[in-house]
Structure formats: structure tokens, C-alpha cells
Amino acid sequence: MAHRLAPQARAELDEIWDYIARESGNPAVADRVIDSITNRFHLLGQFPYLGRARHDLRPGLRSHPAGEYVIIYTVDGAEAVVLHVLHGRRDIEGVIGRYKASLDLRGADYGPRRRAGPRDRSRLRFSFPECPLRRRS
């Protein structure tokens, strides 16, 4: 089992390294952070279904934490394909929507995500059996 990195993930790792080296003034600190993230890539390569399914973002996506960062990936056959490495405080849904073309490895167009409208919300109401402790109105 192996892992692959999408070009966007490589660029994000470079940005992370640059930011940490610049802010800390110590490239060794940036090296350690990148090493800890890439160690997770190897773990995901061995156990691709280890991360949490993120169907709320896009079908087939998974995420796994790496310190303060979140690895967004998908499983392609026996490989974990790392698509993004984002700081946990970022708007992940916004980034995934912005880069949806890079997420689409098979050429499928998922289109914009649709929010539930008033008609859809009416279908979300549930009916519960009468509970003896529940007050009747």
C-alpha cells in the first residue's frame, strides 16, 4: 500500500514549511512539522480507511488529523491520494469548494452543493411515538 500527493497538496506543504520557518525563524522547526505530517501520509498509505469519512464535503473524501493540520484525501484502489493539507482552523469546506476541480480525479462533475430549502426541511421532520413523560399540548 502506498500514497500519492496531488500537486495542490505538495504546494500546501511548501507553504506550510515557508510560513513556519519564517514565523519561527528556525527551519528545523518547520522540518519537524513537515516530517510529522508526512509520517501520517505513510500511515494512511498502510491503512487508507483510517481517516474519517467526509461525505459532508464531497463524496469519497476522508480526513485525518496531523497535529494542528488536517489531511484531506481519497482512497483510489489500494492507495491513499492526499489532496490537501490544511490548518485545522481554516474554512475547510470553503477550500474544498474552491478547489473542487483538483478533487475530481475521475472527471466527474459534482456541481455546487445545494442547501436544503423550505420544501426539503419539511421532509426532515420526524415523528416520535408518544412518550408518557412528554407533555400533551
Features:
YaeB-like fold, 5 helices, alpha+beta, single chain, 137 residues
Short summary:
This protein has about 140 residues and is of the alpha+beta class. It has helices at about 5-25, 25-45, 90-100, 100-105, 120; strands spanning about 5, 50-55, 60-65, 70-75, 80-85.
Description:
The protein has five helices and five strands. It has 137 residues and is of the alpha+beta class. It has one domain (3-107): RelE-like (YaeB-like fold). The radius of gyration is 20 Å and the shape is globular. Mean pLDDT is 78; it is low at 105-137.
Low-confidence stretches: 105-137
If you compute it from the alpha carbons, what radius of gyration comes out, rounded to the nearest whole angstrom?
A: 20 Å
Give me the count of strands. 5
For the largest beta-sheet, the strand count, sense and barrel status come to: 5 strands, mixed
Gross CATH architecture? 2-Layer Sandwich
What is the level 1 CATH name?
Alpha Beta
- Give the helix level as a range of percent: 25-40%
N→C terminal distance: 60 Å
Task: Tell me, briefly, the overall form.
Answer: globular
Chain-averaged pLDDT: 78
- What is the fold named in CATH at topology level? YaeB-like fold
Q: Which superfamily, in CATH terms, is the homologous superfamily?
A: RelE-like
Topology record:
Layout: E1 3-5, H1 7-24, H2 27-46, E2 52-53, E3 61-66, E4 69-76, E5 79-87, H3 92-98, H4 100-103, H5 118-122
Parallel strand pairs: 1-5
Antiparallel strand pairs: 2-3, 3-4, 4-5
